[in-house]
Amino acid sequence: MKKIRITVMKKACYEDLIELYENPLTNPCNMKLGHVFIANGWQKPDGFCNSAWDSISPFVMALAHGGEDFYNGWMKNKKSAMISCNDGFRPVSFLLETMDENAE
Questions:
Q1: In a domain, 104, yes or no
Q2: pLDDT tens, 69-101?
Q3: What is the total count of domains within the chain?
């Protein structure tokens, strides 16, 4: 199984929706832009958000098993995917990339 690099690319925050609908949270998201996680196959990396993992894990699993070219040419690098977490108030976009066998 291949390792998958997961990079935090973008974070959004919809204050208007938070004000209208969300109960106050003390630590809603600890993802930092540029943070890199390495998934070893299906294993969720330490410190990775459970909710975000639920959103991206099917793509991580597919890439780890050699899958590529999701949605017929959607990504320039066919061994990658751009997937966002399912938080409607603070979505985070992750770049998933299959790592070279020699990369760490």
A1: no
A2: 999 989 999 999 999 999 999 999 999 999 987
A3: 1
**What pLDDT band is residue 3 in, cutting at 50, 70 and 90?**
very high
Tell me if residue 76 falls in helix, strand or coil.
coil
pLDDT given at position 104 = 53
Tell me which residue range forms the domain holding 15. 3-98
The tens digit of pLDDT for each residue in 24-44 reads 888 888 899 999 999 998 789
Six-digit token string for 62: 């597919």
Distance between CA atoms of residues 100 and 87, nearest Å: 31
Q: Please, are residues 104 and 10 in contact by the beta-carbon 8 Å criterion?
A: no
Q: How far apart are CA 18 and CA 67, in angstroms?
A: 36
Answer yes or no: is 103 within a domain: no
Report how far apart, in Å, the C-alpha atoms of 50 and of each of 30, 54, 61, 74, 100 are. Answer: 12, 6, 15, 26, 26
In a domain, 18, yes or no: yes
